[in-house]
Every structure is written in structure tokens, then in C-alpha cells.
Amino acid sequence: MIFSGPSGSVTGLSILSKLFCWDSSSNTNSSASLLINPSKISSFYRRSPLRRSPFHIATARVSTEGSEQATAGVVEGSPPPPFDAIRQARRSADWKAARAHLESGFIYEGRIEGFNGGGLLVRFYSLVGFLPFPQLSPSHSCKEPHKTIQEIAKGLIGSLISVKVILADEEKRKLIFSEKEAAWWKFSKQINIGDIFEAMVGSVEDYGAFVHLRFPDGLYHLTGLVHVSEVSWDLVQDVRDVLNEGDEVRVKIVKVDRVKSRITLSIKQLEEDPLLETLDKVIPQDGSTGPDSLRTSDSYDIEPLPGLETIFEELLQEEGISDVRISRQGFEKRVVSQDLQLWLSNAPAVDKQFTLLARAGRQVQEIQLTTSLDQEGIKKALQRVLERVP
After folding, report:
1. pLDDT tens readout for residues 154-200
2. Cβ-count burial 281-307 (b if 16+ within 10 Å, e if not)
3. Dihedral (Cα; 106, 108, 114, 117), 10-degree rounding
């Protein structure tokens, strides 16, 4: 397109001067170079009388060969893509970045822009993703336990949050984040089996309670499960009879599954097992628990607990075990478990005699093994037997 102005008119040059600026570093002895002045383009479209016939400029060069007083120039270059195309290209690039975060597991710091009934809206470059409330770290609810999740979400607007991408589907326009996954990546390295934590009870289910672990910074970053069998040495039929949401407890880590991001916890293992050593420890012989609470008898006078006879037969098949018999039995005041349970003594074998304890309901039976095995050998033999017994 050629711009020219009539004699005595500077309209064409005035327009060009607003769009271009001289490159003073170019060689003035040859053709002069003009560069786009980007800051003038948008204002030119708004003010120029030519706005009804807009033109697009990508790169330009005005030739003034032959005359330094030229009043016309040729603008060359291909038109840039429309604004919508630029925006779409950027969004496609950001979807690609989201998929890269998903595959690599990188943590992203996003700004919370709002929330709805199901979760938070988090900015990811030009995209807005979704962080469901169940994927929030427990640190928020534990910090403000009396607030509803909507009140907590409202207070988070405008703040940054560390998240991981757990779903990036450009076709369905679904971008989902998880703060829990990011917290696991950050803090799971700090926990090991046997560690003891102060904790807060979260939700309570029929099968156990989810408990939030408090870290040295005072925040609750990870959550583990205390199974109903690990709540107490007593028989627990309903976890809600023992634990409630918001309760503060001490827990011990008994298992960490780093592949599935799961932590198994125990409360009862921080308490002394009443049957860990001998029958005398839980049922004293001073008569305070009743005349039939503890009785020493010949093994033939005591009927074994259901299932014990089969276990005895299998134990005698193990190398190093020559005799198995019931020496005493007693009755507890409380029911620990209706199922048959076997317990090893902490005490080592003395004169080839080793003690096992069996219990079911209130009934407890002390079992004497005659064996040449040490405590670890007896434990392995018992494990093999229990694998064979249905």
C-alpha cells in the first residue's frame, strides 16, 4: 500500500511518523531504516481518520532512495494473526504446560481466584483450573476448625497455593489440581515407621478414623488412617464411641505406602499390651478379680479355645518344637476381641520353655512351648503355621 499526500500536505507523513521511528544506528548513506513504534499502534487505530479501513503491519521498510525529501513510501510485510488466534495459541501452549506438569509431577504455585460449591478456582497461566475441597491439605481445616469449608475458601481468595496437576484434558476443558498430592511430595520424606506424632482426628468412619499429623511447623500436612483394630486394646464395635472429630491424640506410624500415598497409624500401640508378657500381668493372683479369674490346671483339664487344637497340631510339625500344652487360663473383666488372637511373650525361652498367650472374648489361656528355637525362630514358625491354618 502506498501512502502519499498532496503538495503542501503532510497527512501521509504525519501518520507514518506516529507509527514509525528512525533507527539512528543504521547507515544513513544508503536507504534509511524505519522501525515500528509499538506504543503508537493502538492509539493510531483509535485516533486515525483511516480507522474505517484498517491495515496490519508486521515488519516495514520505507525506501527513500533518490530523494531525502520523499513524500511517499512503500510499507511491506505480512499481516499478523488476529487477536483470537493469538489467544488460542497461548491457551494451547498452556494446556501443553499443564500436561507437562501432570507427567513430571512438578509442583505449581497458583493464585486462588475464587470458589464454588465444590472447590477452589486456581489460575494456571491463561487457564483456570479446579481444586476440589477433598483435595485440600488438612492444614486449613485444622487451623480454623470452627469454620465451614466455604468460609475457609473465602479467606483463601487471592493467596498462593502449592498444587499438583492430577488431570489435564484439553478436549474436555478439565484441569484439576490437588494440594494433598503436593503436600505428600513435600512432607512424606519426613516420616518413617515407628515415628510418633501429635495429631487431630478428622473424619470418623465405621472402619476407622482419619487422623491429621502435626509437623514441627505446627501445621497438619498429612493424613493417615487408624483402623478400628488399632484404636484400643479393648474391643471397639463403633469407632465413634472412642474417637470424635477434633479430638487430639498421639499416634504411631506403623506402615507407609509411598506408592499409594497412604499412612497407617496406631493409637493402641502407644499403650502397653495387657497380654504382652504373661497372664499374671493382666490377671493378678491376689484374688481381687474373683476366685475363678486365674486358674492353674493340667492341660487336659482345660478345653482349648476354638481353633487352638489345629494350631497345636501344626506347631508340632515345625522343626525345633517338641511339645505344646495349655498351662493356665483366666478370665478378664473386659472383652478385648471375640476372635482368637495369639501373642508372643517378650521374655526369651528359659530351659527350652517359651510362653504364648491365646485369648478370645474374656477367656485367656497361657500356652507353654518346649522348643530349641529362639524368640525370632518361634515367631517365624508361628507365622508359617497361621498361613497353613484356614
Report:
1. 999 999 999 999 999 999 999 999 999 999 999 999 999 999 999 99
2. ebbeeeeebeeebbeeeebeebebbee
3. 20
Q: Full-prediction pTM beyond 0.70?
A: no
Tell me the three cell numbers of residue 13: 507523513
Instruction: Return d(Cα 215, Cα 186) in angstroms, integer.
Output: 12
Distance CA 333, CA 282 (A): 10
Predicted pLDDT of residue 22? 42
| Nine cell digits for residue 30 | 544508503
Rounded CA gap, 71 and 15, in Å? 12
Longest dimension (CA), the chain: 131
Amino acid at 136: L
DSSP reduced 3-state for 5: coil
| Residue 55 CB partners (closer than 8 Å, separation 6+) | 1, 75
Cell of 347: 521374655
- Name the DSSP class of 155: H
Cβ-proximal residues to 51 (8 Å cutoff; 6+ apart), any chain:
45
pLDDT digits (tens, 9 = 90+) for 293-337: 444 444 457 888 888 989 999 999 999 999 999 888 888 776 766
